[in-house]
Amino acid sequence: MRGLNAALGAAGLAAFLALGEAVPRVGLVKEAYFPPTSRIASALWDEVTTDGFWSALGDTLTGWAVGLAIAVCAGVVVGVTISIVPYLREATASTIEFLRPIPSVALIPLAVLLYGAELKSVLILVVYASFWQVLLQTLYGVQDVDPVAEETARSYGLGTWARVRHVLWPTALPYVMTGVRLAAAVALILAITAELVIGAPGLGQEIAVAQTSQAVPEMYALIVVTGVLGLLINVGARTVERRALAWHQSVRGEVAV
């Protein structure tokens, strides 16, 4: 079954690339705006053989990784704290619902005002957007804790942190891993968006430079790189999720199927 899925995926990708080659060749769109796949591939090869490309890729991955790490740690700590402290969940509910819908891109003027086109500006946007993914999933996970298991732990004299470790955390972990996977994708989107708009070093800045200099094949080549990067991050996040939840029924069932 996996072999068939892989073959179908490869066939779909080959058809998409062939379509991208044919559409500009037959004149349905102008090559100046949408180059054929072969020209994009050639531009991509030229890009990966330069030091500037790898430097930009490193800058993007740095902003993504550091921002994601901060967001995950903060989201888990804040989520667990809100859940275990009496009445704190109710006291913070309205504040969370007010702050969560604010688009991260709306903070771009503030980030530029504070730090200009530096890495810190990228981190502000990445952390803000990714934090909510982890926080909300953590809160949902804690809500799913079995009340009977919680009361049983209390009756056996387990302290707060012992209950968090042995009762709350195993229940919340699948939700947390879902939040991490979602946050990883959101962090990449915001990192590239910040580079594109603010001008911080990274792939986004390279795309903006290619666009303004009319280097259209190079622009599409860099866009392809961001897509491949997003795919790799998603696959990596799913792999980590499966390994972290190897004991969980949902993952055991998935492996069995």
In short:
The chain has 257 residues and is an all-alpha fold. 82% of the residues lie in helices and 0% in strands.
Description:
- This protein has helices at about 1-25, 35-50, 50-85, 90-100, 110-115, 120-145, 145-155, 160-200, 205-210, 215-245, 250-255.
- With about 260 residues, the protein is an all-alpha fold.
- Helix 5 packs across helix 6 (about 120-145) and helix 8 runs antiparallel to helix 10 (about 215-245).
- The radius of gyration is 23 Å and the shape is globular.
Give the SSE map.
Elements lengths: L1 H24 L11 H12 L2 H34 L3 H12 L8 H8 L3 H25 L3 H9 L4 H39 L4 H10 L3 H29 L4 H8 L1
Helix pairs in contact: 2-10, 3-6, 3-8, 3-9, 5-6, 6-8, 8-9, 8-10, 9-10
Low-confidence spans: 252-257
Specify the oligomeric state. Answer: single chain
What class would the helix/strand composition place it in? Answer: mainly alpha
Query: What is the element string, with H for helices and E for strands?
Result: HHHHHHHHHHH
Strand content: under 5%
End-to-end CA span: 10 Å
The rough form would be described as globular
For the biggest sheet, the summary is: none
Number of helices: 11
**Number of E strands:** 0
Global mean pLDDT: 86
Question: What share of the residues lie within helices?
Answer: over 70%
Based on CA atoms alone, the radius of gyration comes out at 23 Å
Search tags:
257 residues, mainly alpha, disordered C terminus, 11 helices
